[in-house]
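A note from the maintainers: we've had questions about how concatenated examples are separated. There is no special marker in the raw files; a new sequence line simply starts the next protein. For clarity in this README we add a label.
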Amino acid sequence: MTTKLTNGESVKARKAARDRAWKAGHPEYVNGYQRAYDLKHPEKKQARNRRYRLRHPEKIAVSKLAWKLRNQEKVKANDRAYYIKHRKERIDRATAWWKANPDKVREKNKLWQRKQRAKNPEHSRTLVRKWRQLNPEKWREANRTARHRRRARLKANTVARFTRTQWLAKVASYDGRCAYCDIGLYEHMDHIIPLSRGGPHSLANVVPACKSCNEKKGVQIWTPRPERGTLTTT
């Protein structure tokens, strides 16, 4: 049975209030005692902290945010140190994700480019002009491929994207020559089954061709010679 005083307050409650007041007046002693206890019982400290985090997730989030705002330089230094320590793992993880999600990477790059063009259109145009001047062959190849894709989409043909590296590997498999005559040098990307006849724009349906063969072939279906090299696709 709990003993009560004349004012209705229990002895236990009064003792608890007195202990709280004493602790508030002697913080250094209390903190020192608590540190010593935590060092002696680390597992109990961890359990206590875990219970507090589970009961007060909002307070923890606010506290972390406030600390980061007060210590921005320290946060940057910690992030930088962590990146340097785990640089290879992060690069490997990012590279694996890029290879596993080419469509997402392409869409993210397009979105970023659109934002940059909208933010600073003149600077974007300047960069494109410089890149064209420095990479005329790549620009012509990219422009030609984009035209083929656009034509295929307008005709509702199948469009299976392939990279410039894959296309150059196919050109190399024909030794940079025409896939039909084996005499002229590669000048055009030709569709074995023409787009006008429902052919897809895919790596399997395109071959390098010289200007002469490409013009003579027109909308006909020619059989290209076998590839000499080995084509690697991903």
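[label: protein 2]
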Amino acid sequence: MRKSRHLVLVLMVAATTAIFVAPAAAHVSIQPATADANRFQEYTVRVPTEKDVPTTSVRVVFPEGFEALRFRPPAPGWHYELERDAKGRIASVTWSGSTIGREEYELFQFMARSRKPGRYKLEAYQTYNGSEVVGWVNDAEPRPAPQITITATAAPSNSGTDPFAQGQGSKVTASAAADVAPGLIASAGVPLWLGGGALLLAALSLVVAMRASRRARLAD
């Protein structure tokens, strides 16, 4: 009897935990939740649907100091639209064009950085079929906003550069090429015939010298 009561109690606790944990797992989230300052980091926005109607769009707002610069092409059917502030900074992104069903979730990715350590709250707005909007904007439950903690780190000198940009220092520009001496450029294209001509001239000189030496000996 005691074992039965204990089993029932365990099942009740497990069921209660599932009730409170399941909604939390359905929140819009962004991973990783921590990153280094002054370094580019790829983030993934995970969007599940927790209603009986599908999700039709997701908008993420980037706070001041959090620089979103590049976006990965989303899954087929989806597209994204950027919104910029008066300074030209990317202030938000909206993914739309397809749907996320009740038993589905979708992933969206972008690359960003922050120069200053701290905690950044990225508000998210999830729109459902029928135009209902759920805002994940609070610091904690209910409907907490995704938060990213940026930690201080000793960054190398080139950590703030775009990791996808080509290294411009190794390129030879037209102006730089014009500064090269024409004689050096010409000599680079004719080493074979120039070397062959020198050998031929040396051989002819040797033959002439040998004949002159022979004539001198005969004259003596």
